[in-house]
Write a structure and sequence with these properties.
Largest sheet: 9 strands, mixed
Radius of gyration: 26 Å
Distance between the termini: 52 Å
Oligomer: single chain
């Protein structure tokens, strides 16, 4: 065989090596050639060698398709990590039809440089013209075997390592290896690192509190017998509450409501890949979500001991409202698991005033309000779960729905659009609260209002947005600002104006609501009654590297794909040296999350 026969194959592998190297540098910000050659590249090279061996007459077409698919994967992962700040799993990539929050903003997330991933597809066309059908060298078998051997070693080594954070794991062990390990762990259920159970007393002590039986809590039963309304607001972050822009309140209706509410201002999102649906899961079970896999997409269909089911035993009917397709994030599976008796989606709402996903929030709230008279005749009392959607990224509102007169520097900016969408959502919440009062329901109700997750995150928040945010906040936009959501409890003659700064998470919403309603829940929950306990420990996943935690005094960000670990003082968000207390919290967080996985395991498909 002539040496020139090997040349086209060498060029094919060289193009792949360059592309893999670019991907590695872009995603992980590492430039170790040794790591790329020994860890990241071999598995891609093995797959390419298999394609070359199996391809017969249409070898160049097979190579071109392989390179195109590789380019698409690299391109999608790049956009995904810019939006979510984490590496997607194989599960996320196979469900891109559900990731509309990313696919709908591709033009905003991508840069012209990203399309260089597809440059080799053009270069391969020149190779096709030079070598119509190159001779397939016998050495290709040895290349495949060699790459397979290296891959085997790296995968076996990776299987021995715990996946605490997928992004960091992929950085250390290779992107494809991380996918193989996740697939293996999921198929064998070894992702759950422990089977250790915690009693309610042990769980509370882990958070730093002295356990008190729920029926002995001072707040137990203060809203007994009332209707329950839970309003989950899309992308509502805490930093907008009580703030003004150019003399205009961003949330005037919520601000007014605070005068008769208990307002928790240090509540952190705990959602994973399922984002909004994960928030619904936590609110209605008191359990953590999976993290890297949307919980709703993994449910086996087994009934969960939920808020709706527990309240049903006390005379409550239940209904959930969302102006989107019920199959989005598998809500057609999630809602029956949560035990809702009535489910309303985009198919049930009037097809009017569509913005983004579907009918605007005003249509949703009006529909829910109109259902109340019938429901209150049917049931002794009602639990209504209302999930808004209009304030969803990219936050572009029709002019008729814009209530703010933005300063010139905010016009057309992501943060400006965000403020407009939140102001709209606030307006509709105000209208709904007034409707409850007009129907004489408000004074007989307990109402919880909270944000599902951050809206201002990822690379969609430009440097200009960051500067505007810094000016608006009076300090740099921090991780604490990003992940803090408001949680408001209100209702007629229930609360005086109260702000509580104790640390809370979304897993705390259900136990707090049940305590206020005077209802005991027999099944274990990860959260606790926020009116009773002052300290907390929140395990974080997905939006923060696995192993991260938020504790009453500390905010710990575990090492991730690009950045090292950082310990912050929670109050000031100034960096601190890692101390013995932080090491204890890291260990306690691992115990906490292992127990969370154990509880969740009962409802996840095998």
């Amino acid at each position: 065989m002539k040496k020139t026969d090997m040349l086209p194959y060498a060029l094919i592998f060289l193009l792949l090596l360059i592309k893999v190297s670019a991907f590695r540098i872009l995603i992980f910000d590492t430039k170790s050639i040794l790591h790329i050659v020994l860890i990241e590249f071999p598995m891609w090279a093995f797959l390419l060698s298999v394609v070359l061996l199996l391809a017969k007459k249409k070898l160049w077409l097979a190579v071109w398709i392989f390179n195109l698919l590789t380019s698409i994967i690299f391109f999608v992962v790049t956009l995904y990590i810019r939006y979510y700040s984490t590496i997607p799993s194989y599960y996320d990539l196979q469900q891109l039809n559900q990731s509309s929050s990313v696919s709908g903003t591709i033009t905003m997330l991508s840069t012209p440089w990203d399309f260089l991933f597809f440059l080799d597809a053009v270069l391969l066309l020149f190779l096709v013209r030079r070598w119509k059908q190159p001779v397939k060298p016998a050495a290709m078998k040895y290349v495949a075997v060699s790459m397979a051997a290296v891959c085997t070693v790296t995968v076996v080594y990776a299987l021995q390592q715990p996946i605490i954070d997928v992004s960091y794991f992929a950085k250390e062990n290779g992107f494809l290896q991380s996918q193989v390990v996740q697939l293996y762990n999921r198929s064998t259920e070894t992702a759950h690192a422990s089977s250790s159970k915690l009693s309610a007393k042990e769980l509370e002590e882990l958070k730093g509190n002295e356990f008190v039986k729920v029926s002995k809590h001072e707040s137990f039963g203060v809203a007994e017998g009332r209707n329950l309304f839970v309003i989950q607001v899309e992308s509502l972050q805490n930093f907008v509450i009580g703030r003004t822009l150019n003399g205009q309140e961003i949330t005037p209706n919520l601000n007014k409501l605070l005068t008769e509410s208990a307002y928790f201002s240090n509540v952190f999102q705990q959602v994973g890949a399922g984002t909004t649906s994960d928030a619904e899961w936590m609110t209605n079970t008191g359990l953590y979500p999976q993290g890297m896999i949307p919980t709703a997409n993994s449910l086996s269909g087994k009934e969960a001991p939920s808020l709706a089911r527990t309240l049903k035993e006390h005379g409550y009917g239940s209904a959930t409202y969302h102006a989107d397709d019920v199959t989005f994030w598998n809500r057609d599976v999630l809602y029956p698991v949560l035990g809702y008796e009535e489910i309303f989606s985009i198919d049930d709402l009037p097809d009017i005033k569509n913005v983004g996903f579907g009918p605007a929030d005003e249509v949703l709230f009006d529909f829910a309000a109109n259902e109340l008279p019938r429901q209150l005749e049917t049931y002794e009392r009602i639990y209504a779960n209302i999930v808004t959607v209009t304030s969803h990224t990219p936050f572009e509102m029709p002019e008729s729905m814009q209530h703010l007169n933005l300063p010139a520097e905010y016009e057309g900016m992501y943060i400006g659009n965000y403020f407009q969408s939140i102001r709209y959502a606030d307006e509709q919440i105000g209208v709904f609260i007034q409707e409850l009062k007009d129907q004489g329901i408000y004074d007989e109700s307990l109402i919880a209002i909270f944000g599902d997750h951050s809206g201002m995150h990822g690379t969609l928040v430009t440097e200009e947005d960051q500067l505007l945010l810094g000016d608006f906040l009076g300090h740099d936009y921090s991780l604490k600002d990003q992940y803090t959501i408001p949680l408001i409890f209100t209702g007629g003659n229930l609360f005086e104006e109260t702000e509580m700064t104790r640390i809370a998470g979304q897993t705390d919403i259900m136990p707090t609501l049940l305590a206020l309603l005077g209802v005991e829940h027999e099944e274990p929950m990860m959260g606790h009654n926020l009116f009773q306990y002052k300290k907390n420990l929140l395990g974080m996943r997905y939006y923060l590297p696995g192993g991260s935690y938020i504790q009453s005094e500390q905010f710990y960000k575990a090492p991730g794909a690009k950045l090292p670990e950082v310990l912050y003082d929670l109050k000031t968000m100034e960096k601190r040296s890692k101390n013995s207390e932080a090491k204890k919290h890291i260990k306690d967080t691992e115990t906490l999350m292992n127990y969370a996985d154990l509880l969740l395991k009962d409802y996840i498909e095998e």
